[in-house]
Amino acid sequence: MRVSFLSTTPSLVSLVPVSDPSLNSPSIAATRYLTRPVAIRCSNNNTQSVDVCGEYGFHRRDVLKCIGASVGMELLASSGSWVEMASAADLIQRRQRSEFLSSIKETLAKAMKGNPDLIPSMLTLALNDAMTYDKATKSGGSNGSIRFSSELSRPENKGLAAAMSLLDEAKKEIDSYSKGGPISYADLIQYAAQAAVKSTFLAAAIRKCGGNEDKGRTLYAAYGSMGLV
């Protein structure tokens, strides 16, 4: 079975400019290109035959190459919008994570400010939770397991129950505004230790500024712990 069709597409091999005497105006380009009819026959076997009307012509694979190039250029042109959408989504996620982390730190800082006597216990809580790591079995570590009574009741963790209770209350508040699910105890305990360290240096900066909280915060923001020397 053979399929034949007639194409009047201009030849892709050679475009011959022809002067048009009807265009006498110097402001108009008096050049046009000839269109040549081409007959292409497609067969159902591996061979192909091309009948060209005239001197110039092109093969079927040339047509397919042109179509493929056009499709490829269109895909490249449209891919830019997808990249922009992906970048925008990534920026939104980063901003949401940053805002959530700031809210966590603010909640923990408020808890530390209201219970400054528990700051040493909070640091010990995070340290003892991390020291359960076993290198041989690759188990334990900062996984929040210290919250269980089996670990919290051990002699080295004596006096840490109050700090753990404070974190339980802070976790309820954090989970109430979390959009990505509840925060894990492993993360919460380590964030609490960071907040405890910051509260310690911030309190020292405020004392160095004569009790002026605004000046103390400015000193800490500008120099951190180095401003306390």
TrEMBL record:
InterPro entries this protein is in? Ccp1-like, Haem_peroxidase, Haem_peroxidase_sf, Peroxidase_I
Q: Which GO terms describe its molecular function?
A: heme binding; peroxidase activity
Matches recorded under Pfam families: peroxidase
Plant heme peroxidase family profile domain: from which residue to which, for each copy?
A: 105-200
Example GO CC term: the record gives: chloroplast thylakoid membrane
Domain of life according to the entry: Eukaryota
- Keywords assigned by UniProt, alphabetized: Oxidoreductase
Q: Where is the signal peptide?
A: none
Q: Does the keyword Magnesium apply?
A: no
One BP term from GO: hydrogen peroxide catabolic process
User: What does the similarity note say?
Assistant: Belongs to the peroxidase family.
| Record's protein name | Plant heme peroxidase family profile domain-containing protein
Source organism of this protein record: Gossypium raimondii
